Amino acid sequence: xxxxxxxxxxxxxxxxxxxxxxxxxxxxxxxxxxxxxxxxxxxxxxxxxxxxxxxxxxxxxxxxxxxxxxxxxxxxxxxxxxxxxxxxxxxxxxxxxxxxxxxxxxxxxxxxxxxxxxxxxxxxxxxxxxxxxxxxxxxxxxxxxxxxxxxxxxxxxxxxxxxxxxxxxxxxxxxxxxxxxxxxxxxxxxxxxxxxxxxxxxxxxxxxxxxxxxxx
Length: 216
Ligand code: HEC
Fold this sequence. Notes:
By secondary structure, the protein is mainly alpha-helical. Helices cover 38% and strands 6% of the residues.
């Protein structure tokens, strides 16, 4: 009788086969599925300003305090017209999204800013919740001016109180003064970096477009 205890060839072949099967199931198959997910979604062409803002979001490490992923409540998942719908987890409902994040949402994002820690709110639909450019300037310059007791660090280096030179002035945007902003000069300008970052934040609201495209 062939026994794994006496047949060395079998002793080698069985674990080798098991190894190949496990690699297939645990690594190759998920990778194939992932690539299919990416292929379903076309790359959205961003304006150069949004692209620049996205890079700044990465380099300023906003991702250490903010997620861009809405969790779904798998227990409430339901089949609607052949499509599996996962509702938003109750704890994430305050972030103004109607569906949980899906893998497709991060396709073509290099790197994806999913985040792991929520010291501040999720920003995946912040453009929907807070579409006002000036609000973002005030908030970045002095978070407490619009959000009392905010723990977010101020990003004053994105602003200048010096009148921008005439040849570049068009790239600067004046920030309206509000009470409690604490500007040490009569006027404040958002630098091109601040503009780009805010443009990116406001662009974060594409959830439904993505869903429509997937539904086709
Ligand atoms: C140390 C943690 C921390 C970092 C780093 C941080 N934030 Fe925040 N952020 C917070 C907290 C806490 C809040 C909630 C209080 C508030 O509104 O200021 C917040 C709120 C916000 C809001 C308002 C969201 C809402 O729904 O009210 C925006 C927009 C935002 N942050 C953008 C950014 C950007 C852009 C960066 C990077 C330049 C950044 N944050 C870096 C902690 C942080």
